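ok trying this again, last paste got cut off
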Amino acid sequence: MYKPIKIRSLFSVMLLLMILTVISTADGFELGNDIGVGNNPSSISSGDFNGDNKKDLVAANFYDNTVSILLGNGDGGFQAPAKFGVGTYPRFIRQADLNADGKIDLVVANSGSSNISVLMGKGNGTFNPAINYPAGANPYFAEIFDCNRDNIPDVIVPNYSNNTISLLRGRGNGNFLAPLFIQVGIKPSSIAIGDYNKDGLMDAAVANYGGSVSILSGNGTCGFSKRTDLAVASGPFLITQKDFNRDGNLDLAVTKYTGGVISLLLGKGDGNFNPERQFPAGSNPWSINSEDLNGDGIPDLATTNFSSGTVSVLHGQGDGNFAPSVTYPVGSGPCSITSLDADGDNRLDLAVANHYNGSATLLFGEHTLTSPVTPSVIPPVVQPPTPTPPQPPTGLAAIEQSVFQKINAYRASRGLPALTLNSSISDIARIHSQNMASGAVPFGHTGFQTRVQTIAQTLPYYGSGENVASNWGYSDPAATAVDSWLNSAPHLASIVGNFNLTGIGVAIDGKGEVFFTEIFWLD
């Protein structure tokens, strides 16, 4: 006796829905309007791209494979975005005059196509078509500096998937030589350039999401003479440098994505750093800005908190300490932040890219803060801690492994890279299958948003999908489930989607019906 197969799929789902409270405070920042940017912006920066002395915005749009230019009006408003094509899945954007013509050019790190896109500016807010240069495997970030003292801008990028950084030496005309590769720590995600040992040569501090910060001492010829790895746990992600305690030595601040804090490493001036100190930020702090936001001459910190839809501002005290964070609501999935004077009042404002809203939130600088003001925010849904489920019996583990192998075999047949099986994601998927088998939840995607939030506590998040199935009475339940997904367009879209991780959970009810959950993830 056979029971008809049941399948459903849910993909392209927002991580969480924030309800925002518009506020205006006498001190700190005033929350402005959101402005449309593009499809899932991943990075935002500012500059004067048309030479009118008004600050403009540029954003990299992850799923558009474009950058958007928003010309500023000088009063806090911006014109509609103009888009320019770049590589696949752009993650980060930087700007500089690459060919000394007095016009700002753009460099974009493209994680999907493993290259950088260079767009030469025309000086009127438009750009020539992108020229792409190979970088490394899955570049997450880009920085522009002069690595060999020839007064020509060079580009350095961290390659998240092969634990290297790439140096692309500039030719002075906007073109670049083939990359030089240098080994760093595990999963490098960002770089801060500075002279950390005071020898007059530029060094690099690399945040490695795998649990360290690599300090590379520059030799002035686009090479590095020494590498020191500093242990920094809990997912160090975005890094910045400033002299936070005014001792003349450069210090480092890095967001710890899974720790909910900012890690501060005070420099000794010889390339070494004191043990880290931590300052609370928000839920899954992602991007960081270290400008003087309140005009007191001391660097401050501002972070985007990806899972809570907020920005935290920590005002520097000048001795390496920071006042308690002040929190402002922004959009959903804030992932990048830049400072600029958008309204011409000589106070720094903040622009925040919201990954899920396709927008940028403006926070307009007001007066120097005298006391913390925390706007009211509807908190995100948080799943209570769930005990790690027991290891499944051998039979279920074999079915899970079979599903994994069949999915990757199909991806290989389409020329797509294999997914990596992640045990944490599988634990979450397995719980959902067990809940469907027990009748605790109906067959389908109930609680998917909460599952995504739970996984995002430990893994960076750029996209997710979920396929579920159930069948009864088949000799090969794994093949039956996968075949049904392959014959359904929505499920197939998840299988061939831009994901790099997966988790699979299988459960069987008392009647022998087999329940499947596969979660797809892009970190």
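PB: full thing came through this time. The first strand starts at residue 3 and ends at 11.
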